[in-house]
Amino acid sequence: MASFVGVAGAEVGAGVPVRVDRWFWGEGIAPLVWLDPTYLQGGDDGGLCGTEPLTPEARWVVVAWRFEGRLTVDMCAPHALADEPSGRQMLAELTAAFGPGTPVAQPPPADDFATVEPMLPMITTLLTITAATLAISAAALAVFARRGRAR
């Protein structure tokens, strides 16, 4: 489990990003964490404890649990908007239990959360293009080398 406060982003392919500003408890302290969106589907998940998605660009108090290495929240894991009474109460309880929490330094802001989504697909594409370019260049050099020897 992990307890933190942060600003949620819109769901993207890797999940729901949260810019963490204070970490209270648990492993994985980081300026940006990704929540598994499996249970954030509006509660219409056939009794799997689903809950409403986190409001993007809102500050949340979160107690997340880990499932298969990924952080997630559901209706059984407390989370609340930080500026609402339930969020202020959670924040007070976390502070009483764990102290003021650890401030988490943020990297320079990006234009939006989509720019910080894991870039594996783009890296794979670039590597594929690079490999294809190298193969074509090597083939062209071989053809020109053979033409040069034939004279």
Question: In this structure, how is the largest beta sheet organized?
Answer: 7 strands, antiparallel
Which runs of at least 5 residues are low in confidence (pLDDT < 50)?
none
Give the N-to-C terminal Cα separation.
73 Å
**What structural class do the secondary elements suggest?**
alpha+beta
Q: How many distinct domains?
A: 2
CATH architecture of the largest domain: Beta Barrel
Radius of gyration: 23 Å
The helix tally amounts to 2
Write down the overall mean pLDDT. 80
Helical residue percent? 25-40%
For the record, what CATH class of the largest domain applies? Mainly Beta
Shape: elongated
Q: What is the number of beta strands?
A: 7
Strand % is 25-35%
CATH names the topology of the largest domain as OB fold (Dihydrolipoamide Acetyltransferase, E2P)
Q: What string gives the helices and strands in order? A: EEEEEEHEH
Kindly describe this structure:
It is a single chain. This protein has 151 residues and is α+β, with helices and mostly antiparallel strands. It folds into 2 domains: 2-116, Beta Barrel (OB fold (Dihydrolipoamide Acetyltransferase, E2P)); 119-151. The protein is built from 2 helices and 7 strands, in the order E-E-E-E-E-E-H-E-H. It has helices at residues 85-98, 120-150, and strands at residues 2-8, 16-26, 32-35, 59-67, 70-72, 79-81, 102-103. A hairpin with a 2-residue loop joins strand 4 (59-67) and strand 5 (70-72). The longest helix is centred in the C-terminal third of the chain and has 31 residues, at 120-150. It starts with a strand and ends with a helix.
